[in-house]
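Possible regression after last week's pipeline update?

I re-ran a chain I had predicted before the update to compare outputs. Posting the input and the new output here so someone can diff against the archived version. Not blocking, just want to make sure nothing changed silently.
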Amino acid sequence: MSYSSKKKVVTLFLLSQGALAIDAFFGYKFLQKHESARHWLYSNCPNILLAYYNTRDYYSDKGQLPGTEQRKEDVKRWKLAAAIENEGQQKEQQQQRTRKGKSADNTKGEEAQ
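New output (post-update):
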């Protein structure tokens, strides 16, 4: 391999590493501001989200653990939202069953007359 081709390979490697570092920084900032993105990662790629929380802990000042605290708050909020959603779905299903039962009773009453 000639010197110029080695130089091109090293340059390409350094550029790709720089681009990766910039992408990671902006991804970190994006996750910091957007809970919906964190929730999507929680559902689809939990290991990436865990890396985000650990990075927040690692770069925190004075031994604080903002990533751990944020993770606890996020999971608590998402579980509460899921419980509320499930409760609403159960009530809706119960109302549908009640309506079906009433309509069946009405048809039986009409047949008896």
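Follow-up from reviewer: compared with the archived run. Residues 58 and 97 are 52 Å apart (CA to CA). Marking as no regression found.
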